[in-house]
Design brief:
2 copies of one chain form a homodimer. Helix content of chain A is 27%, strand content 25%. With 273 residues, chain A is an alpha/beta fold. In chain A, a hairpin with a 7-residue loop joins strand 10 and strand 11 (223-228). In chain A, helix 3 (73-85) packs across helix 4 and helix 6 (163-175) runs parallel beside helix 7 (193-204). At the A-B interface, helix 1, helix 3, helix 4, strand 6 and helix 5 of A face helix 1, helix 3, helix 4, strand 6 and helix 5 of B.
């Protein structure tokens, strides 16, 4: 999105810009789009979660850094909008895709809220949203082609969404036979919910359904493991893990000691090969 | 995925490679990942739908080109695998993400099928899958942050999937309150299905729900329009269009004559601002 929020008042010159970018799952160079790389290079100010900013080398991201902790998301938005309103070229750094389980919608929600309160802070800021490779895409490709047919993404985090809403989505995703990507699957405070989700999948899908489990996707430390649904152990999963549960057609194929998983597009008589 | 399909037989030297890449929605330079760009640059042979290969300038993609038409997907796979089996460095070019409604899963299905038939053609090929920005990501960002909370992707094409399977997915996506990205939404042969899907959404979601409609995403010809669900006209939609239908929380915000749409992560009392 490139949206200039200029007021019609000629006294209001275009001020700064706020670009929300996704740097890919772990900020690895090979998966970061050129648009995002260029925006980061040009930024006067980089705002983001400390862990994400630390993924960016000073040589490619020379701007001033404004670190925030987890849980400081609202303050992060206000700070970024405030800097842009001062006329600065600001980049909000997110992992994955800046619009998927990231800061994109909160930035817009914050600006909309300002506007409703007739706070003119955000007026005149040029807003740009840039997509990036999100974890499920890197995981699907590393495992084979898990997202080869209709799929959904569900965050299991109950911090901002009631557990009942998430559970309703899980049950409909399973009933609709969607391939299902699970973000924020498990935390210390939420140790058993993922197991309940997996149990529900097991009750409705074959025990041989492939489940891809990925960590540190795109980095040198990347691990991707394929489990049959019937054998997955959720104890090893944490918040830095992404899972993809296959649908009724997904399969694991072994060849020469290697395994890959894919979801075909054709079904039954419509299979192509 | 980097998988060497070497047989244990030492007489079988590693042969060629087959890399399935996604070049983003319209092959625009700014959204193509460096890994994909490098693979295309290094390719001895580029295999793909003519329309996608034509998006790549000879200066960045100097390899031999093997054009295929729409509907020739199986032949495309066999040809690419055959070239790789001859020891060549082959890239299969897809638009968007090579693993999402593209050739990734068909390549794996073809190789698995070969293996079952003990056809050794695919043995020894190094297979690599590389993700790319898919249309819904570019559309969501161009519109604001439509994919800001749980979402699904559904292809309305009935060529490979029975209409009943698709309809079941649509109804569960609506019942689960997923943001819904619709690929291949409408063709001349399938002129009314999209309208039925939209009618179903209208029966269950507010008439003010934002719907983003995008074409030629990422290119100079990009068009992105936001409609309220109650007012969208499906007659103008074709196979080159991507749609995103918001969920119950998605909203359109207008400021200084610009409109953007987003889906907040927080619900009700959990809203952040």
């Amino acid at each position: 999105m490139r949206t200039s929020l200029d007021s019609a008042d000629p006294a209001h010159q275009p001020r700064g810009s706020l670009t929300v970018v996704g740097i890919g799952p772990t900020g690895c160079r090979g998966m970061m789009t050129p648009d995002v790389r260029e925006a980061i290079w040009q930024a006067e100010d980089l705002v983001g979660f400390e862990g994400y900013l630390n993924l960016l080398n000073k040589a490619v991201a020379p701007g001033n850094r404004h670190h925030f902790g987890l849980g400081d998301e609202v303050a992060r938005c206000h700070h970024a909008i405030g800097l842009a309103a001062e006329g600065r070229r600001v980049v909000m750094v997110c992992s994955g895709d800046g619009g998927i389980y990231a800061m994109g919608s909160l930035v817009l929600e914050t600006i909309a809220s300002h506007h409703h309160r007739e706070d003119r802070l955000a007026q005149g800021i040029e807003l740009v949203m840039m997509p990036g490779i999100t974890a499920m895409q890197a995981l699907s490709a590393a495992a084979g082609a898990m997202l080869g047919h209709d799929f959904c993404a569900i965050s299991l985090s109950t911090l901002l969404t009631p557990r009942e809403t998430i559970w309703k989505r899980v049950t409909h995703a399973v009933a609709g036979d969607f391939v299902m990507a699970l973000y924020n699957p498990r935390s210390r405070q939420r140790a058993t919910f993922l197991q309940e989700v997996i149990d529900h999948c097991r009750a409705h899908r074959s025990a041989t359904t492939p489940v891809a489990v990925g960590r540190a996707l795109g980095s040198d430390q990347q691990t991707v493991v394929l489990h049959p649904l019937g054998e997955i152990n959720t104890e090893t999963v944490d918040m830095h893990t992404t899972l993809i549960v296959g649908n009724s057609q997904s399969c694991i194929h072994e060849m020469a000691g290697q395994r890959f998983a894919y979801t075909p597009r054709g079904y039954g008589g419509a299979r192509l090969v």
